[in-house]
């Protein structure tokens, strides 16, 4: 049970700065997910919290105590690695008990803690096997078991599900979510998979190029992305972007248009626009729909349809050359080549002053 | 690409022939030839036809027994003693030469003796030099195998660190391996020289002239030790490289996991490094053991088996007899005995280190 506080954390390798001043607050018992594209520094940040990488500058506090220069084992953390990092020559029981063996915990306490971890992870029947006899998911469960017996203040997960196949990944994702509910410990979880981020997190921290792009609750980030990057990163299929020009600006709205798009007034919270500037309009595929006659906001030609069962994903070519994606109801049947009118609710669209 | 060349059986054999032929000619055929010759009285050059003599070569080589000799007594029944009070014994040759009462000791010579009370136990063997060379070889293996393997591991651990210029150290430790053992042996003859050798000079300098110097290779007590030390030094770099390759196959995340658990340096070695080196250890131990059993060049260059057979070895004896004394059959018998020893030791090592 602990809070974690990062203040202006920086990391440089020689002259190259990879973490460029990160501030994050993690509340007691919170599940925080660091997400971002590869190379954004999310794993480095996690390893700095763990103590596996030095902190070049800034302050790391766990439970109000400065941790910058403490050994990893003294920070009250436990870490689960992508590659499991379980010891191949030890049985599951020995692996789970490793930290206790190292620290010479007495036998009774050791076996009680190991039994408790085995119970939580439902792997009592695996305890005498060797890692080579386990599946990927079971191995990761052993690694989590090893973390649990440490009774850490903070759990750190470094892409724990990336080595698993899709079906197993979903199961383990749910198990980790349940584990967090059961233990109520603070957890920091690194992933590049935005589905894991959305489903598990109390708070998502989106990172890019060593900087925090946005931090907040999953739905907050989904509905109120702070910038183009976050808007494009979260949500599947990802948000559609249209190049537009600002026509008019109001207190809490902005009106945009383009050659392909009819004039539309979308809400705006505090972003600065000036008339005539180039901007980007973002519309999530789920909000894009075929328009009733004469009410279309833009015309799109169907290039490709993918019927996923629960929904149908349609690729559209718009007259200005951009490609849009619409996710529409499952029973809609569209033929490639159909030129149709499309619309969306302006209230669900986002205007961004930046152009990528 | 199936062409006539690659599918032709004859071409396949043609390509295999050079390697296959060389292996047959220089390894397989001589191997069986040695078995055959050891059962004959073959000499290198002889006008007499070769005869099949059964196991008599082995009989002569291996016959050994313990002769119990009571001290001489005078007319009163008291033990005859010399001026120092040591009991006097009849000469061993009175039992082994032309003594019809002891046919089992005929032709044997004393190897060594010990006393229980006034009774002398004399170990006699037909071929004392063989037994000495067997003892020397075993002593060599017994010291060189563990010390060389251990030292190589220590060096490997040292040069496995990520330090600037570490490759220079790797190169330095590896250098003696590149130099021919014959050259190394010649150089060490100068180093070990009794009059003005480097070793005597250094020891004299370090002890402020207190150390008087000795002829390291000319003394029964130090000759084999000196050769052991040199042999360990010469080949340690080779095994260091093998250990090093083993060390680098161990996943770095295992070390990170153990550092998070708070393992000390020793515990990390004990629980992570050493188990990860198991297969490497098997290889290193078996290779060193086989190399040590084949000890020849050092002896041939430095001592010729002397002084007083204190450095003679099995391979040296085999060469000495076969080509020095032209006794090919006796040399073959030694080779076969050596082969059986090395084979059984390797099998034992395989069994002890088998995967469980």
Automatic annotation (TrEMBL), chain A:
PROSITE patterns named in the record: ABC_TRANSPORTER_1 (PS00211), ABC_TRANSPORTER_2 (PS50893)
GO terms for MF: ABC-type maltose transporter activity; ATP binding; ATP hydrolysis activity
Family statement: Belongs to the ABC transporter superfamily.
Keywords: ATP-binding, Cell inner membrane, Cell membrane, Membrane, Nucleotide-binding, Transport
SMART domains per UniProt: AAA
Keyword field contains Iron: no
Identification of the protein by name: Carbohydrate ABC transporter ATP-binding protein (CUT1 family)
CDD domains named in the record: ABC_MalK_N (cd03301)
Keyword Transport: yes
ABC transporter domain location: 4-234
InterPro entries recorded: AAA+_ATPase, ABC_transporter-like_ATP-bd, ABC_transporter-like_CS, ABC_transpr_MalK-like, ABC_transpr_MalK/UgpC-like, Mo/tungstate-bd_C_term_dom, NA-bd_OB-fold, OB_MalK-like
PANTHER family: MALTODEXTRIN IMPORT ATP-BINDING PROTEIN MSMX, MALTOSE_MALTODEXTRIN IMPORT ATP-BINDING PROTEIN MALK
GO cellular component: ATP-binding cassette (ABC) transporter complex, substrate-binding subunit-containing; maltose transport complex
Automatic annotation (TrEMBL), chain B:
Residues that span the membrane, as ranges: 12-37, 138-159, 171-192, 232-255, 276-299, 328-348
Signal peptide residues on this chain, from the entry's feature table: none
InterPro entries: ABC_transporter_permease (IPR051393), MetI-like (IPR000515), MetI-like_sf (IPR035906)
Membrane topology: Multi-pass membrane protein
Assigned keywords, A-Z: Cell membrane, Membrane, Transmembrane, Transmembrane helix, Transport
Domain of life (superkingdom): Bacteria
Predominant location: membrane
Ranges where the ABC transmembrane type-1 domain occurs: 134-349
Subcellular location: Cell membrane
A GO biological process held by the record: transmembrane transport
GO cellular component, as recorded: plasma membrane
Family recorded in the similarity comment: Belongs to the binding-protein-dependent transport system permease family.
PANTHER family in alphabetical order: ABC TRANSPORTER PERMEASE PROTEIN, INNER MEMBRANE ABC TRANSPORTER PERMEASE PROTEIN YCJO
Annotated protein name in UniProt: Carbohydrate ABC transporter membrane protein 1 (CUT1 family)
